[in-house]
Design brief:
By secondary structure, the protein is mostly helical. The chain has 10 helices and no strands.
Length: about 260
């Protein structure tokens, strides 16, 4: 049967029909196995040092042939290398099964300070930056929703010299509590360091103090607070905002009194 379509149009139609392929239907919506649970990833821990993941050993290309630190042996500071000990700390923080909520690489990255191994194995600055934003937000919400003392609730505002009465609204009741000083006092690094101590973080963090005989003077409180923020960031990015916010409320702010 003849057709009146131009030859160019017919050629386009036939070419597009040839290129089309049937789209396979997905029979299951089950999530695929995470990368860190695959046999290949698990076997990397026993491979040659040159092929180990970055968190486990220093990349060979970043190691100098001759060390210029002649006091390295005197200033050597041992850090945790046992993954079971690290998992126990995550279980204290995240509850039962907490060691499985994060990939192996992220678990170690969250507890690694940039002073450890000159930052060659990665460090937790970006995780801590994001985690601090999450903690700051939940702290602001907690201060806004904190109950006021009964003496302030029963207090009736008096008019000023011009007969004006202060405007009151339920949404503005705790607004005066949301100040930088209140947040700074709540999230003081000393309080966060004490909280990190209660979870056992000093036994698993990887860092290099300036003076191994004086950890307080080397800034261990800052490192512990930094690590708490990094763990919050890692949990939130890996498991979503709902899990991250609940973790901050129950494991960070509640022990601090909010």
């Amino acid at each position: 049967m003849a057709t009146n379509l131009p030859i160019r149009t017919l050629r386009r139609v036939t070419d597009s029909a040839i290129r089309k392929k049937p789209i396979p239907k997905r029979t299951s919506f089950a999530p695929t196995r995470p990368l860190w649970n695959t046999p290949r990833f698990q076997a990397e821990a026993d491979t040659d040092p040159a092929n180990r993941p970055r968190w486990q050993s220093t990349p060979p290309a970043m190691v100098a042939p001759v060390s210029t630190n002649f006091r390295e042996e005197q200033n050597r500071f041992p850090v945790n290398k046992d993954p079971k000990r690290l998992d126990r700390v995550y279980q204290r923080l995240l509850g039962e099964g907490g060691g499985d909520m994060l990939p192996e690489e992220v678990k170690w990255l969250a507890v690694t300070h940039k002073s450890f191994d000159h930052g060659r194995r990665g460090f937790n600055d970006r995780l801590a930056w994001f985690g601090k934003r999450v903690v700051d937000l939940q702290t602001s919400l907690a201060l806004l929703n904190a109950p006021k003392p009964q003496s302030e609730v029963d207090q009736i505002p008096e008019p000023d010299n011009f007969g004006r009465t202060l405007f009151q609204h339920r949404s503005l009741e705790n607004l005066e509590q949301l100040t930088e000083s209140a947040k700074a006092e709540t999230l003081d690094k000393s309080r966060l360091a004490q909280l990190a101590n209660s979870y056992g973080l000093p036994q698993v963090i990887r860092w290099k103090p300036k003076n191994t005989q004086n950890l307080a003077g080397s800034g261990i409180e800052t490192v512990l607070a930094h690590t708490m923020y990094a763990i919050v960031g890692a949990v939130t990015l890996q498991n979503g905002g709902e899990v991250g916010n609940r973790f901050v409320k129950e494991k960070v702010l509640a022990p601090l009194g909010l």
